[in-house]
Design goal:
With about 280 residues, the protein is of the alpha/beta class. The chain folds into two domains: about 70 residues, Chemotaxis receptor methyltransferase CheR, N-terminal domain (Chemotaxis Receptor Methyltransferase Cher, domain 1); about 190 residues, Vaccinia Virus protein VP39 (Rossmann fold, 3-Layer(aba) Sandwich), CATH 3.40.50.150. It is built from ten helices and ten strands. The strands form two sheets. It has a seven-stranded mixed β-sheet with strand order 6-2-1-7-8-10-9, with helices on one face. The chain has a three-stranded antiparallel β-sheet with strand order 3-5-4. Helix 10 links the parallel strand 7 and strand 8.
Length: about 280
């Protein structure tokens, strides 16, 4: 077997340390098959810091009281791959099934609060897709509606990118042409910036989904937690779903990625269709 000379050696004890730390603090599960991936993604960082081993790196990590290096570690281990309108059928479901129901509630209660949460928002493509859909669905009426769009991630780097709202053209490949024209500005070759009217619709915040509770007020009509739990083992997945269940309104919806699944026997949500679940009415 050929060993990559650029990789810093990652011993058994060192891999066990990082795997246990990431699992206990963030629910990220790293099996033995992930050892080369971890070494590959972190070796460059070890060398950047002028260190010679992963043990030195872990000592550096522990003594960094700012939390900046821990955030850097998370950024490198997780993959923030996304694009606008990824898994398009979920957005179609939002427009065809969820928003009309919310409209009915708004007729009954003029100040009904519309709330949507992108839990694990990566660099913002998902929540901005939702923002554009709301702007298209409600038109000028949106400005008189009590709505809130919330997006969270564990990665500060991803959140910073989301807040800037600058994207390579490849990430717009599933975007309707009318949306691209209306909500983006070209910024150099193959680069586009989302307009401020969409950016200002969203509140971004760093959250660890493995926390027992979150500093959030109220519940949400829909929570999108897609392609996030691929990093979790079954127990961590169960815990996260149970916690997020508390933040979904009765009758509200919960979305996961099409590559993910929930065990029916311990899932508090009702299965609607692949990757779409609903919380029972009160």
């Amino acid at each position: 077997m050929t060993i990559n000379a650029d990789l810093v050696p990652l011993g058994d004890a060192e891999f066990k340390y990082i795997a246990n730390m990431l699992y206990e603090r963030f629910g990220i599960f790293l099996g033995e098959q992930k050892r080369i991936l971890v070494a590959g993604r972190l070796s460059k960082r070890v060398r950047q810091l002028g260190l010679v081993s992963f043990t030195d790196y872990f000592n550096y990590l522990v003594t960094d009281k700012t939390g900046a290096e821990l955030s850097e570690l998370i950024n490198r281990i997780t993959t923030n791959h996304s694009f606008f309108f990824r898994e398009r059928e979920h957005f179609d479901f939002l427009v065809k099934n969820i928003l009309p129901g919310i409209d009915e509630k708004m007729k009954q209660t003029a100040k009904y609060p519309l709330r949507i949460w992108s839990a694990g928002c990566a660099t913002g493509e998902e929540i901005y897709s939702i923002s554009m859909l709301l702007r298209e669905y409600y038109g000028p009426r949106l400005d008189s509606i009590d709505y809130g769009l919330f997006a969270s991630d564990i990665s500060l780097s991803a959140l910073n990118e989301a807040g800037m709202g600058n994207y390579a053209e490849a990430k717009l490949r599933e975007l309707p042409a009318a949306y691209k024209a209306a909500y983006f500005e070209k910024k150099g070759q193959d680069q586009f910036a989302i307009r401020d009217e969409i950016k200002k619709m969203v509140l971004f915040k760093r959250l660890n989904l493995m926390a027992e509770s979150f500093p959030l007020k109220g519940q949400f009509d829909a929570v999108f937690c897609r392609n996030v739990m691929i990093y979790f083992d079954q127990e961590s997945r169960r815990k996260v779903v149970q916690t997020l269940f508390q933040y979904v309104k009765p009758g509200g919806y919960f979305f996961i990625g099409h590559s993910e699944s929930l065990k029916r026997e311990d899932c508090p949500f009702t299965y609607i269709k692949p990757a779409v679940y609903r919380k029972g009415e009160a």
